[in-house]
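Dear colleague,

Thank you for sharing your sequence with our group. We've completed the structure prediction you requested, and as agreed, I am returning the results in plain text so they can be pasted directly into your records. Please verify that the sequence below matches your submission; if there's any discrepancy, let me know and we will rerun it promptly.
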Amino acid sequence: MRAMENTAPTTRWKPNVTVAAVMEHEGRFLLVEEHTSEGLKLNNPAGHLDPGETPAQGCAREALEESAYDFTPTALVGVYISRFRRSDTGDDVTYLRFAFAGAVGTHHAWRALDTGIVRTLWMTPDEIRACPERHRSPLLLRCLEDYLAGRRYPLELVYTDPSVTGAQA
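Please find the predicted structure tokens below.
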């Protein structure tokens, strides 16, 4: 048997962990239109998980920051991974997304939307399917289709150790 060579990379690969809210009301889904390096794109209210928060907490925070709606995650829709190359920098980027379904709450119309967010839109599934070129990533449509297929998993499926949040065990 041949000995394995030490080919460890000099830097460790880490995907970007993101959280996304699948927000539905009366058959329409709340999306954000945002500035990206690829132009204006549509996405779920979503963003990076911050230090010290659980994925569900991060999802509620991002939904509020990007859409000005309260959102309470009640179920995990799925865990997704995607990869793309940024056109402006050539960077190879991988995202690990936790998508949550939940209850849409109060709209705080007075709140400014997060930097880069142009507006929010309530769209039907057919309207979303009709414009894949406007999607920020293929995960937008995949999360929608999984939600419409009834995929819901208990929030407890994503365990957060108390060391992350500083909470007592």
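Summary note from our side: Residues 55-67 form the longest helix (13 residues).

Kind regards,
the structure core
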